[in-house]
Automatic annotation (TrEMBL), chain A:
This is Aspartoacylase. The gene is aspa. Gene3D superfamilies: 2.20.25.160, Zn peptidases. PANTHER family: ASPARTOACYLASE (PTHR15162:SF9). GO terms for molecular function: aspartoacylase activity; hydrolase activity, acting on ester bonds; metal ion binding. The active site is at E180.
TrEMBL record, chain B:
The gene is LOC107714473. This is N-acyl-aromatic-L-amino acid amidohydrolase. Signal peptide: none annotated. Residues 10-200 form the Succinylglutamate desuccinylase/Aspartoacylase catalytic domain. Residues 215-296 form the AstE/AspA barrel-sandwich hybrid domain. It is a peripheral membrane protein. It is an enzyme of class 3 (hydrolase). The keyword Membrane applies. Keywords: Cell membrane, Cytoplasm, Hydrolase, Membrane, Metal-binding, Zinc. Binds 1 zinc ion per subunit. The active site is at E173 (proton donor/acceptor). GO terms for cellular component: apical plasma membrane; cytosol. It comes from the Eukaryota.
Amino acid sequence: MSSRTNISCLQEAKRVAIFGGTHGNEMSGITLVNMWIQNSAEIERNGLVIKPFISNPRAVEKCTRYIDTDLNRAFTPENLSAPDVEGLPYEVQRAKEMNRMFGPKGSSDAYDAIFDLHNTTSNMGSTLILESSTDLFNLQMVHYIKKAMAPHTCSVLLNEHPQLKYSTTRSVAKHPIGLEVGPQPQGVLRSNVFEFMRTILKHALDFIELFNSGVEFPPCTVDVFRVQERMDYPRDTNGNITAMVHPHLQDCDWEPLNRGDPMFLTFDGRTVLYEGANTVYPTFINEAAYYEKQQAFMTTCREILAANAIRKACK
Amino acid sequence: MKAVAMPTVSRVAVCGGTHGNELAGIYLVREMLKKRADGTEPVSVVTVMSNPRAAQLCVRYVETDLNRCFTRAALSAPVSETSPYEMVRSQELNALLGPKASMQAVDLLCDLHNTTANTGLCLITYSDRDWICLHICKHLEMASTPVRYVHFDIPLNEAYSLDSVGKHGFAMEIGPQPHGVVRSVIFSAMQEGVQLMMDWICQFNSGTLFEGGWVDVYTMVKNIDYPRDSETHVITAAVHPDLQDRDFCLLHPGDPMFLCFSGETLRYRGKEALYPFFINEGAYYEKGVALSLARKRRVQIPSVHIY
């Protein structure tokens, strides 16, 4: 039976930004954005304004994650409404500036979609990161990208966790999408990782162009991994780590971790087991930037999200 | 080849954190520092965190690369309060473990490093006839990770790295590992490498005769930079997927080397097949090195024993 009443009519997505260098040592996005700033032919699409943009130029210049504070945690309401005074951390100033350019966050003037390009030292492959389970536009786009990239897998990470969700650079947009591709060391450009990210973006922009042209996307489901918990390394009283990710867990992002499975290996050779009651799916396993954030890996659970059919709203 | 008699290797230094984000060596040195020496060891080992400020910040260096500060010129340059931290530190380390090229220097200096390149376990040194280093390499062949001996043909005065401070020395380099990350298999490989080195030294010092034989030596010939835009100097290609991670696999003329962002493949134009290593090391982008190329040859080593 036709479900014509279940088509969601959504606003056209006219203004799109692609951010690279939110972290100044994650090279795929930096290289792609710089390339597209020089020559935008590859990212041009009918009826779309697409702005490639380097989020944290000072960090990119120094090939470091950030200067004063992590830009990808800086888009909090407090920071965005902080008065313009001397001595604000560089990234807070930058967040305010970007909120003026691409936001204001939460307003109808904000950019329609922002893709934020990241790399990770974790073996996550190609991952799309969502912040909402009810953003139909994003769910349909992610579904389209996954199909287009097949047989290459794109995993979808959903961070809707009340405490662990953070104020990302891309969150100024109506539809924020994180692209996380690994494994790649910081400061290194790997050809395969670069090309995967480039292709994912190509499909994402194709989707938006199709949507804007009036194409209707039928109802779909998306397999996602929903963020549950952050697991830290065992540490001593001085805060130094006393164990490493266990070799059986290392590089096993998205694979089930069951009670009794090895989790950490101490420097003196003792195994620490996972004691959780339920099977979880770890991700961001051994990400370099997360040692200082007290995170060895994140646990997730599998979920299937359903999305209505969508179509561009008629004027 | 006639057997060679050599002095005991009585003073050994194990250094980690020469680069503050190469974590296996940093954690190994921390573990070794926790275990107090009880005075009964057959060999005296001094364990050093070479660049503590960089290790604290988890960066390669604070002002300048410490592992380029050990040339004769750098070690004798006058230092003041305004000198870069690492220039001051290299002179401190030279006083502690050297002085370089003097009789007071430690007998063996093992400097622990990691690389983002897929090098496996390498001993990197300035000599291709240092029998102590070559015998240790031969002994490390029993490790679970294959070991290779890499030689930079540079005279001692110009040798710039910390390992050149000892009478014998090498960098123990293990990859691949991202900077700022410790991978347990890499840590274990490094721990095993240091243990096997210490085993060899103890056996040698107790009078064991180590039989001679042959060791493959990879001598560095040249570095290759990324293709760059002539105006902006920005790189225009990545290491080709067919070359990425293939350290020590012979590279022939015509083999793919770089994949340009434009889609073009750039190929190796040299006339001689050579062995690539340090392929895509993160710290070498700023040094203009995408990969290094080496020639391999078999070196005969004599039997060795103490005097």
